[in-house]
Amino acid sequence: MHMDIKMAWRNVWRNPRRTWLTISAIAFACIILIFMLSFQFGAYETMINSAIQINTGHLQIQADNYFEKKSMRQVVPIPGPVLQAVSQIESVQAVTPRANAFSLVSSDKRTAGAMIIGVDPESEARVSTLETLVRKGKFLTRAKPDTNPAIIGRLMAQNLQLDIGDELVVLGQGRDGSVAATALTVCGIYSSGQDEFDRSTLHMPLDTFQEVYSMRGAVHEIVVQVSGLDRVGPVKRVLSSRLHQMPGGKNLTVLDWEALMPGLTQAIKLDLTIGIVFWGLLVLVVAFSILNTFLMAVFERTREFGVMMAIGTRPGRLVQMMLYESSAMTLVGIGLGIVLGCMVTWIFQHIGIDFSEASDVLQQYGISGRIYPQLSIITALAGPMLVLIVTFAVSLYPALKIKGLKPVEAMSHV
Known about the structure:
Elements: H1 2-12, H2 16-56, E1 59-63, H3 66-69, H4 79-87, E2 92-106, E3 111-119, H5 121-127, E4 134-137, E5 149-153, H6 154-160, E6 167-173, E7 179-190, H7 195-200, E8 201-205, H8 206-212, E9 221-226, H9 232-244, E10 252-256, H10 257-260, H11 262-300, H12 302-310, H13 315-351, E11 353-354, H14 359-362, E12 370-371, H15 377-401, H16 407-411
Parallel strand pairs: 3-8, 5-7
Antiparallel strand pairs: 1-9, 1-10, 2-3, 2-6, 2-9, 4-7, 5-8, 6-7, 11-12
Helix pairs in contact: 1-13, 2-11, 2-13, 2-15, 11-12, 11-15, 13-15
């Protein structure tokens, strides 16, 4: 066996130019696969984190069916014990209550429908990036005791022709069915880059919201931020277990970011599917390169194989030697591709890739003008392993053709 491997390695370099072209094709495919997979995962993580930090959080505790119906009456009635229980869980970084209502918002000139969100300014700043998104004015504060502050999105301010210090009127329905109406003063205008969010949301202090909408201390959501995406599942299981042990907890449910943002999840799956198709085509090109190399090798060495079989070499041994040759080229190409691919990806992981020219489009998905690939064991090995499997499978065909050779005919081959 050792002699066969040695002979296979020498045969690989009988045509150095063809060998290097094949190895280069394999290495190039591995570099592209490692970089593109790392780039996609980096973009996905950016999209998810941006959406989580702006609005949904990693997890939310809600009343059963609230997510589907968004009814004012489906609430977390006593949020205090729930907030305390959540904050004691390991890996939970921050937690905040929220209340929501759809209402009409009017300025002196225009009226529009909007989602009114009541937030606790102090804890909200720890859970979301909303405070950092304020581009004009300031975040929710009570500069004057008799002023009800509100912050609105950039597009809502444009549509309603509002500016800092202007007054707006909110008109909706309270939790008990009563009319909910109040006047608010714009203290800040934020810009998240997500047009739908900036066009249709207004934030006000939670205590004001509860008073206006007759919430009686209840909230609609308890938003949880954990230490990382990998901790979402374990924290969700712990939360669900603890809620069931609390009074009234069986009427509450825990939703993760995938359930809260199904559109984003579907977009990621679609993009990943398109990426897999692209990777498959790339690997297919490499596979045909390997196939061509070994078909040519079999064709050129038919006379040699005939002589070897005539002197007693078993066809199975020749097939084995050909597979050694293909494996040697493939492993060299894959090894070279992994090293170069990881180096290139590592560099861009630190400096990022500038997409400032497409920032307007990317902002709709919560991505800034710079994307950072995320190199990991999965991204470094998934593509090369696919190349290894496909190239080995393809090399079987020319190798098995040797079994069909007849020594006399093969020796007369020119």
